[in-house]
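Dear colleagues,

As part of the handover before I leave the project, I'm documenting each prediction I ran so the next person doesn't have to rerun anything. This entry is a single chain, and its sequence is reproduced below.
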Amino acid sequence: MRQKGLHSFFILISLIFLLGTSQSMAVLDEERANHIFNDFIELYRLYGGNKYMLEEPIIQSSHVLQAAYIAQTAGAPDDIVIGLLFHDVGQIIDADRIGDTQSLHYDHDELGALWLKEHGFPEYIWKFVRYHTLAKVELCALNDQYYNKLSKASQESYHIQKSKYAAPQEQHHFEIFRKNPAYWDYLNARKCDDMAKIDGFNTAEQEPRGTLPGFEAYRDQVVRVLSGKSNPATNPNWKETIESHYQLMATNFPKFAQKIKRAETIKR
């Protein structure tokens, strides 16, 4: 009886230890996620005020925030929203190359994917970032009119990126991309990237009457994503909603811009 009692006692102590350890790990994971997000926000504080592209009317931070917001209001999954928030981090992680648009058009996708992978982001997200420029090349190949609806600056970067993937040593990426289970998710997310160029749609930090949600609005989602607890889509038809936004943007940009500015953020 005494041995059974001691055995039960040690089991109880072990369970208490394991529970305590798991709780500590969860706290550490949250702290780490917040630390990573703070570093990301700091990068945009330092460099996010630069023009997104010389010919574009918006700045770096407004572009990524608009892209994430369009997906958020469409009810897309956390992984898509946060993937869009981080999709251009490769543009600003190397201070020596800030503003070197010609070379960054070529490899900011690779730089960003590597940064995300090193900081523990899920494969789904860093692969989206890795292939978000290839997704533009693919959309133009699937639809001749897609290229015509790109901004002038995005058309110029398209030619750089198309040339990159036309090289023999890079062509295998098309096959890898097309076989990815998230292929259609990534193509729809890319449309958010191309729509996120609304002049005058900024945060309250950027202008007094700004209504675009800032980086802090996404902190909980970033923590969930880095903790392996991403939420699924709140709208099962999120891809159709994004396509509807894109079609409106392609035919009537002012009307599209007003619709996005008035959209309500879906609570998660």
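The longest helix spans residues 2-47. The chain has one domain: 30-262.

All the best with the project,
I.
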